[in-house]
Every structure is written in structure tokens, then in C-alpha cells.
Write a structure and sequence with these properties.
The chain is of the alpha/beta class. It has one domain: Alpha-Beta Horseshoe (Leucine-rich repeat, LRR (right-handed beta-alpha superhelix)). 40% of the residues lie in helices and 13% in strands. It is built from nine helices and nine strands. It has a nine-stranded parallel beta sheet, with helices on one face. It starts with a helix and ends with a strand. It holds the Pfam family LRR_6.
Length: 233
């Protein structure tokens, strides 16, 4: 299977490769696959999902046209990946369900020095953690992100208030996804008040419809209209 995949990659111009549950115990074949991906002059998108192995050496971050990288549900050592992102042209990075909260800090630390404009981190933080957000917010402020997805990360009011400081005066952030979190009105209003002029959409999930009173929803909606921000579920 791997040999056929390598032949397919090397024999034609491909824009995307999608591997789910990929298993290869042979180091030589894995090296050949990595080399084939790195040498591809047309590869723009790479998706590798549900792969419980050391993926980082396999990822062709130096592929000249690679801009989109999806490594969802792979239990990555994100710290190793973060260092290599500095050498890449990746613009869209998705790491959904990589439960490595401690090493996520290293990703945020390098973020301002990468080309990443869209970052997807749903389900990466299993417990609400104010200290984590306090540590990464300074790097978030300096990032070039346009889209940030933090769905399903147990963000409560305290975390949302800290996160609000990270989006205050942000120069490029346009869309923030915060559905399926635990904050209520206090967190929502803090985020909306802090949202910089670049913002266009904020996804508040259940907070918007189920966790706020009608009066609180009206206040959020009025503020959103004043700031020309679309509130979404």
C-alpha cells in the first residue's frame, strides 16, 4: 500500500493527500513516503487523521507549496511540530483533539514567527485553565491570525476574560469560534467589548441562546451591532 502511495505521489501532479488511520511500521517505507511528499512541487494540502505514531518526522513541512495541514486526533507531541513550523509556509493549521495541553504553549510561542493565519484547536484543552491562557495571550496578541477556532475547550468565564485581553487591539483577527464552551454572559460581554475593529464574526454557541437572559442577549446584540460584528451560534 505504501509503495503504491509513493508511486502515485511521484508519478503525477497532486494538490492534496488525505490519510486516515495510516499505519506503516517500516522505517524505510515511511522515509520514502516523506521524501515523496517533500519533493512534490504541487502538494498544497495534507490531512493525516487518527494516526497514533510519531508523525512529526513524516510531515513534509518544507514542501514548497504546502499551505494547509490537518493533523486532527493524532496525539501529537506539538512541541516538536511547533519548532518545525518556523521553517514552513503553512497558513492553515488544524490540530483538533490533540490532547497535549502542556505542549500547546510551545505552539503559541512560535505563532508570531510563522505564516499561520487560520488555527483550529477544537477539543485540545480538557480542563479549564486560567494559567494556560495567561501564558499564551502575549503570543496571541502578536500573531497574524485571521481565524481562531477554540470550540470545545472548557473555556469558562475566567478563561474568557483572560482571552479577551488577547484579542484586544489585535490587528488581523476576524473570526473567533467559541462554541460548546462553559462561559456565560460575563465571559461573552468581555470578549465582545475587547474585540478589535478587525473582527467580523464571533461564534458564542450555547452562550448566545441558552445561557443568557433575554436582557443579556439584547445587550450583547446591541454591542455587536455597534461594533459591526456578527454574533453566531
Amino acid at each position: 500500500m505504501v509503495e503504491n502511495l509513493v508511486q502515485w505521489i511521484t508519478s503525477q501532479s497532486i494538490q492534496g493527500v488525505h490519510l486516515t488511520g495510516f499505519v506503516c511500521e517500516n522505517d524505510d517505507l515511511r522515509s520514502k513516503l516523506t521524501l515523496a511528499l517533500v519533493k512534490s512541487t504541487s502538494l498544497e494540502q495534507l490531512t493525516m487523521k487518527k494516526m497514533n505514531l510519531n508523525l512529526v518526522p513524516l510531515i513534509p513541512l518544507n514542501a514548497p507549496k504546502l499551505r494547509y495541514l490537518n493533523l486532527n486526533d493524532c496525539f501529537l507531541e506539538i512541541q516538536d511540530l511547533a519548532l518545525r513550523l518556523l521553517e514552513s509556509n503553512i497558513e492553515v493549521l488544524s490540530l483538533s483533539k490533540n490532547y497535549q495541553e502542556s505542549s500547546l504553549e510551545s505552539l503559541f510561542e512560535v505563532l508570531p514567527r510563522t505564516k499561520i493565519t487560520s488555527l483550529y484547536l477544537p477539543g485540545c484543552i480538557t480542563n479549564g485553565n486560567v494559567k494556560f491562557w495567561q501564558e499564551v495571550v502575549p503570543f496571541l496578541k502578536l500573531s497574524h491570525l485571521k481565524t481562531l477556532n477554540l470550540n470545545r475547550n472548557n473555556i469558562g468565564n475566567a478563561e474568557a476574560i483572560v482571552l479577551a485581553d488577547g484579542i484586544r487591539d489585535h490587528k488581523t483577527l476576524q473570526t473567533l469560534h467559541l462554541s460548546f464552551n462553559n462561559f456565560e454572559y460575563d465571559g461573552a460581554i468581555s470578549l465582545l467589548q475587547a474585540a478589535s475593529p478587525s473582527f467580523k464574526k464571533i461564534y458564542l454557541g450555547r452562550t448566545w441562546k441558552k445561557k443568557c437572559t433575554q436582557e443579556e442577549r439584547d445587550e450583547l446584540e446591541t454591542l455587536a451591532e455597534e461594533k459591526k460584528i456578527q454574533l453566531c451560534e
